[in-house]
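Hi support team,

I submitted a single chain yesterday and got back a structure, but I'm not sure I'm reading the C-alpha cell output correctly. Could someone confirm the output below corresponds to the sequence I sent? I've pasted both exactly as they appear in my results page.

Thanks,
R.
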Amino acid sequence: MPNTELNNCTIFRLKERPTVPLEAEVLSPDLIAPLSREAIGALPVFLGKRQYRIDDFFTVEGNGSRRLELHGDAGRVKWLGRGMTQGRLTVHGNAGMHLGAYMKGGTIEVHGDASDWVGAEMTDGLITIHGNAGGQVGAAYRGSLTGMKGGTILIEGTAGMEIGMRMRRGLIAVRGTVRDFAGLQMKGGTIVLAGGAEIRTGAWMIRGSIVSLKPLQMMPTFTFACNYQPVFLRLYQRHLASHGFALPSDFSAATFARYSGDTSVPGKGEILVLQATTA
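Hi R., thanks for writing in. Yes, this is the structure output for that exact sequence:
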C-alpha cells in the first residue's frame, strides 16, 4: 500500500526543460497522495495538444504522499498545485504560470522565480516565492469578478503588474518593487509593499488596504486623510514574521499617511504610506 504520511516525500526530477509550456495540474498533493509510484508515472500531462505521461518528463521517486518536491527548472511547467487543499509542494527551481491557482489549503514554496498568476483566485493556504514573481499575483482571471479570497502570498523578490487585482480577502506581501496597477479594482484584503510600487497603485480600488514602506506616486483620485499609527499593522507584522517574512520597520513606532479612494469609483479603500518612526 502507498504511504501517505506527511513525513514521507514524493520527489519529481525534471528530465529536461520543456520547449513549450507543459500543463501539469496533476502535480498536487491531493492527487498524488493515494497513488503508487507506477500510478503516479502514468498520470496525464499535456504538451500543446498532445497528452503524455508524467514519467515522460519527470523521474518519480517514492510512492504517493502529501509532501511533494520538484527539482529542476520548471519555468515552463504550468498549473503546479492547482486547487490543492492539503500538504506541501516544494519547488527547487523556477515555477511556471498559474502556480497555486484556485488553491484551498496547504503550502507551496518556490526556491526560485515564479511566472504570472501565482495564487490566482485562491481561497486559503500559503505560497512563498523566494525569488521574483510575474504579474497578476492573487488576481482574478479575465472575466472573473473576484480574485484572491483568502490565504497568504509572500514574495521575497519583485513582482509584476496587477498584483491583487480584484482580490477580496487575504494577504499579499512583496519585499521588492512591484510594477503598475498594484491593487487594481481591489475589493478587500491587504497588500504590503515593502519595496514600494511603480504607478497607478490602487486604481479603481473599492475596499481593502495597501501598505507601502516606500514613498508612492499617488493618483489624484486618492485624498489625504490623516497621519496616524495603525494598531492593526502590528498584527500583520507578527503574522509575517511567523512565516519568516520580517519587515524592516517596527510598526509599533511607525507613522503612516492615510489616503482614501479611489474616489473615481467611488471607493472606500485606503493606502497607507510609511512616513516616519519615533523612538
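A quick pointer for reading it: The chain has a mean pLDDT of 94. Let us know if anything else looks off.

Best,
Support desk
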